[in-house]
Specification:
By secondary structure, this protein is α+β, with helices and mostly antiparallel strands. The chain folds into 2 domains: 183 residues, Jelly Rolls (Sandwich); 99 residues, Arc Repressor Mutant, subunit A, CATH 1.10.10. The chain contains 10 helices and 12 strands. Strands 1-2-5-10-7-8 form a 6-stranded antiparallel β-sheet. A 6-stranded antiparallel β-sheet has the order 3-4-11-6-9-12. A hairpin with a 2-residue loop joins strand 1 and strand 2. The longest helix has 22 residues. 30% of the residues are buried.
């Protein structure tokens, strides 16, 4: 199978990336009413369904004009949004936010997810009010409840009636409220959040533990405890892992050479970068390209 470049522009928003053969396989349903009912529906359902991805697939979105709820079913997705990179595992949900720049691909050979794509005249305000406007990842505590809500939205989409569309939009609003409720348990300490933001803003620099401690204003011991509790790694371990993931993303773009990426990410040499890359991924940078 071959990779094929795809792109789509809608107003100020742009979507582009690569398909791989028949991947990603989409099984989406949508209403003809979607996006046409104006202010009658503050939250509108554009489409919902299932999609299956291959490791060679890639999507990047600039200034997203939609909000999407991506519920991972199988495999692992690598998701980057506004300089934050994360892994979404089965049972976890990542959110493509309005106005954000993001990219996604699957880290495993294949991966599957369920998707609900939303728009609406008051959607941005609603997301701000319920606290979903700045959240990238949700680890649900009640998957059965979310499964049932995704099922209802998909089933309502099977029959093209205005009544079903209204019910589907109402269910989408209920889904947002449920996601907000289930995300409150994930709130991290502000010092840890500052550390994460600082790390992602400085992935191309030589970052030290002393710089992190100075930026967060907490002790080395407290910083270590917070990273272990919430991320199950050390501060520098997290930094090195995210640094390598960013380098891998640059490789997959097929724009930069290994030498250019090693220089951009401040590795001491292309050879050292290649050695560390192989330790993490089991292949050389050139094999990935």
């Amino acid at each position: 199978m071959k990779r094929r470049y795809v792109s789509l522009s809608t107003g100020m928003s742009r979507l582009f990336g690569y398909n791989y053969g028949e991947y990603p396989r989409h099984s989406f349903l949508s209403f003809s009413y979607a996006g046409k009912e104006g202010s009658a529906y503050p939250v509108q359902l554009l489409s919902s369904g299932y999609d299956e991805w291959h490791r060679e697939c890639f999507r990047q979105r600039i200034n997203s004009d939609v909000f999407s709820v991506e519920y991972v079913q199988k495999g692992t997705f690598l998701f980057r949004q506004n300089n934050t990179t994360l892994r979404a595992n089965p049972g976890e949900i990542f959110l493509v936010r309005l106005g954000a720049d993001s990219s996604m691909q699957c880290e495993t050979e294949t991966a599957q997810k369920r998707t609900v794509i939303l728009c609406g005249t008051l959607l941005r305000r609603i997301l701000e009010q319920i606290g979903l406007d700045r959240i990238n990842l949700i680890i649900p505590g009640d998957r059965e409840r979310l499964d049932a809500m995704f099922d209802r939205i998909y089933e309502l989409s099977r029959k093209e009636t205005l009544a079903n569309y209204r019910d589907a939009c109402s269910e989408c609003y209920a889904l947002l409220l449920e996601l907000s409720a289930q995300s409150t348990a994930m709130h991290r300490p502000p010092e840890l959040q500052r550390a994460l933001e600082y790390i992602h803003e400085n992935l191309s620099e030589h970052l030290t533990l002393e710089k992190l401690v100075h930026h967060t204003g907490i002790s080395t011991a407290t910083l270590h405890r917070q990273f272990q509790k919430y991320l199950q790694t050390s501060p520098i371990g997290y930094y090195l892992d995210q640094k390598m993931e960013k380098a891998a993303g640059l490789l997959r773009s097929h724009i930069y050479s290994v030498k250019e990426i090693a220089a951009e990410m401040k590795y001491s040499s292309p050879q050292y970068f290649a050695t560390e890359f192989k330790k993490k991924y089991g292949i050389t940078p050139r094999q990935l390209k």
